[in-house]
Every structure is written in structure tokens, then in C-alpha cells.
């Protein structure tokens, strides 16, 4: 087993030609009701089939909502998706265990993720669960956006959805406060979650922005507690030092993306046109990203072996 989340578990597996894949499986006799399990598996596959391939979106190869597995000589019904195997796990593991990412490296990874989100939005889909845990890393530490089980098509709804899904830490206020009969803009919700993701990459935590010299009244992240995101809690003093260290443009982008008012958040095209994205050239950073992430992984491994 290489991962788990919610009611699913992810396993690595080889086919007859020794190609390596990731299998996301949900046991139908545990967790959700059978109908809910099938819906999640089929929705993820539906989204992936409709949007097509992108270098920063995980590849899906097949889906079976009526699968079977033999465990301890007993057959058990499962739903499963066959996906691309990402050798370096999730970005969440790295940030949780080793802290904030240096700005130029975070920018490189951010641009890859933004490219995936732009592609998804151009296809009129919203992800609705963008978070560090759903950002996987291939063998070269390239970004792979994953887990489209909460994804929704916006083609026939003029961009609106009533699906109250996602992860509380990353949820925008309009989803948290959603009442029966209400809807929200799916793409603007993605922008908020993406902004929270950037904040965690650069801070390692979601700070209380009222501590800093900025207009904190507009920032939706102030509504949530983030004390337990990192395995090692950061003091207010360290967060304050981190805030002063970051570039003005990075702080501006975070504040814009996590604005409480979805109408004041940028589109993904406006995010990609923001000055922070083009603050410096990304050319030649691939090897630097690889070395930095590899060193962090080694540090995690060394600590776990103590």
C-alpha cells in the first residue's frame, strides 16, 4: 500500500509487461454505501475521460466499479481506478515534515499546478478539492494534480454548482456557509483552494494574517484554524519572520486568491499573468527543484529511521 484517504486505499501494481501503476481501491463492504462508492469512482473517471491528458494531471487508464479482490483467501467486492504511478508521493508529506518551500522552487511548482488548473477550467470543469495531499510528484518531482472524485462539469450550469465537497482547511467561505438551494462558482472556489495551497507551500502553515501589515479583513483564510497542519508547530514569531521574508508580489497573490468575496478573486488566467509568476525566469530550475526535493525526502527518511 502506498497511500490512503477517506474510504480508499492506493496500491502499486505491475501488469504482465512489468509496467508500474497505482490502483485506487474502495472496498464495497466498508465505508460508504455502495452507491456512493461507485459514484466517486465513476465521477473521477468521467472527469478524466472528458478533459483528456495534460502533463501536470495524473493519467487514468481504466475504471471498474464492480471489481473483485482476493484477500486472505476471501473474495471481496471493490471499486477501483487504474492510474499513473507517482514515485515521490504527495507534496503534503514533504511540506508537513520539512516545512515551507523556498520561493523560487515554490514558483516553479505553482506554475505547473496553475497550468493543470487552467487546462481543467478551459474544459469547463472544477476540481473542488485542490490541496497539497492531491498534488503528487513523479520521479523528477514534476507536479501531477490528482483525485478528481469531487470534480464537476460546469458546462450546463454557467459555472455554478451546489456540490458541497472538498476539505475544510481549503474550503472557501461560500462552500463552508452554503445553505440548501444555494450554489457557488466552481472555478472561483478552485482559485481559493489553490491560494491556500500556495500559502501552505510558502509558509508551512496558514497564519492569522491580522498579525501582519496587510488588509486581513478580506482574507478568507482568517476563518480557519491551521495549528495542526505541520507535524512541528510554528510559533507566531517564526510565521511573522516568514511573512517579512517573502516577496511583496507573493503576498499580494495569496491575498487576492483567498479573498472572502469570490467576485474579487482572479481567474486562473489572471493568476498566471500575476507579476509573482514572472518575477524571475523558471529556466534551469528543474534540476534545482529535483535536488531540493530529493534532499527533503532524504531528511524525512533519515528522521523516520531513528
UniProtKB/TrEMBL annotation:
Q: Which UniProt keywords apply?
A: ATP-binding, Kinase, Nucleotide-binding, Serine/threonine-protein kinase, Transferase
Name all Protein kinase domain ranges.
1-277
Give me any GO biological process, just one.
autophagosome assembly
Instruction: Report the Gene3D superfamilies cross-referenced here.
Output: Transferase(Phosphotransferase) domain 1
GO CC terms on record?
autophagosome; cytosol; membrane; phagophore assembly site
Q: Which GO molecular function entries does the Swiss-Prot or TrEMBL record give? A: ATP binding; protein serine/threonine kinase activity
- Protein residues bound to ATP: 28
* Superkingdom of this protein's organism: Eukaryota
Q: Which SMART domains match?
A: S_TKc
Family, per entry: Belongs to the protein kinase superfamily.
Which protein, by its recorded name, is this? Protein kinase domain-containing protein
Amino acid at each position: 500500500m502506498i497511500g490512503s484517504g477517506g474510504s480508499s486505499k492506493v496500491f502499486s501494481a505491475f501488469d504482465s509487461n512489468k509496467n508500474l501503476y497505482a490502483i485506487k481501491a474502495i472496498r464495497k463492504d466498508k465505508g460508504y454505501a455502495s452507491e456512493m462508492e461507485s459514484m466517486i469512482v465513476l465521477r473521477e473517471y468521467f472527469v478524466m475521460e472528458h478533459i483528456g491528458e495534460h502533463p501536470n494531471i495524473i493519467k487514468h487508464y481504466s475504471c471498474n466499479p464492480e471489481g473483485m479482490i482476493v484477500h486472505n483467501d476471501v473474495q471481496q467486492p471493490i471499486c477501483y481506478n487504474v492510474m499513473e504511478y507517482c514515485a515521490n508521493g504527495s507534496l503534503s508529506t514533504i511540506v508537513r515534515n520539512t516545512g515551507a518551500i523556498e520561493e523560487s522552487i515554490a514558483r516553479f511548482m505553482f506554475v505547473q499546478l496553475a497550468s493543470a488548473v487552467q487546462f481543467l477550467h478551459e474544459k469547463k470543469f472544477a476540481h473542488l478539492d485542490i490541496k497539497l495531499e492531491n498534488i503528487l510528484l513523479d520521479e523528477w518531482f514534476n507536479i501531477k494534480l490528482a483525485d478528481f472524485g469531487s470534480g464537476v462539469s460546469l458546462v450546463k450550469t454557467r459555472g455554478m454548482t451546489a456540490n458541497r465537497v472538498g476539505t475544510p482547511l481549503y474550503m472557501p467561505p461560500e462552500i463552508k456557509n452554503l445553505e440548501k438551494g444555494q450554489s457557488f462558482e466552481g472555478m472561483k472556489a478552485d482559485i481559493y483552494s489553490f491560494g491556500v495551497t500556495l500559502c501552505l507551500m510558502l509558509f508551512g502553515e496558514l497564519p492569522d494574517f491580522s498579525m501582519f501589515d496587510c488588509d486581513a479583513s478580506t482574507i478568507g483564510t482568517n476563518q480557519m484554524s491551521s495549528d495542526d497542519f505541520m507535524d512541528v508547530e510554528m510559533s507566531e514569531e517564526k510565521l511573522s519572520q516568514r511573512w517579512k521574508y517573502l516577496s511583496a508580489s507573493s503576498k499580494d497573490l495569496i491575498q487576492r486568491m483567498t479573498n472572502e468575496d469570490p467576485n474579487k478573486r482572479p481567474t486562473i488566467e489572471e493568476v498566471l499573468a500575476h507579476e509573482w509568476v514572472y518575477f524571475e525566469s523558471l529556466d534551469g530550475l528543474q534540476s534545482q527543484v529535483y535536488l531540493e526535493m530529493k534532499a527533503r525526502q532524504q531528511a524525512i527518511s533519515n528522521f523516520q529511521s531513528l
